[in-house]
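Exercise 7.
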Amino acid sequence: MPFLLRGYHFRFVVHQEGLPMREDTAEFPDLPVPQLARAQQSLELRGATLSAAALRVLAREVILRVSRSDAHAQQAPADVPGNAAIELLCDALLSGYDTAAADLVQSERLGGMTADTLYHHYIAEAARRLGLRWERDEATAAQVILGAGRVYAILRDLRSVFLAEHLTAPPGAEAVFASVPGETHGIGATIAADSLRRKGWDVTLRLGLGHDALVEEIVRLRPTMVGLSASLPTMTFTTARLIVALRMRCPQIWVLIGGPIVAHDPDIATLVDADAAAADIETGAKLMAAHLAELNRLARN
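Solution. The predicted structure, written as tokens, is:
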């Protein structure tokens, strides 16, 4: 099934492991259009141009990645929230009030809940239950898209909190460079990695990995910075989906998009929700150096 994103045509596979496969065919009559538009913008900042099917793919990505996060937590902490609190958050994610879920998360944060507990045991569990409600027909696709968009926005807003708790020492000049899944031209990423290494950076290069494998590899490496290389506009949705997954599994991550795709669309960073875009290696190096300086400032404070 083709869909349109900023004039580019794509084909995609709807199936995602571990998520409900029921397809809703209605055009979401039960929610006002502005609410859907806000959910779309949270999932992908140009989401208003995405079809319902594409939004379902991104919603699944959010729920899948966040739901898997608890497997990486060490053990249940003392401040783990109870069942009632998690159900209340899940209800808030589906409610008609845009800030209800964010307000609950903020309240728990101000009450002393750590970032790890917020992510692994509160937000992740609420996202898992959101997926179960979808699977059981207790929530429509429109409601789940809305809820997934809110989960995405909450975790994006909490990035500074995750950084503050995990940056116990100034980070080194380290990054992961990777080609976007399906990208057949790896020479650009290789040249960029070699150039940064000559400048003193420790760059891990990953080429030719599929979507799930690349996400899990970056989760394993736990970088603070990732550079993604893509060549053609046809990689736009693939890139957006990858960044959604990375932000759900690595909330602290900073993402740079590079390669010929930047020349094709100067607004690509906004479109795929990257933090920055660079059309050439020197620009990318300067952007990464500036972010490293900011990380060092945060670590010292």
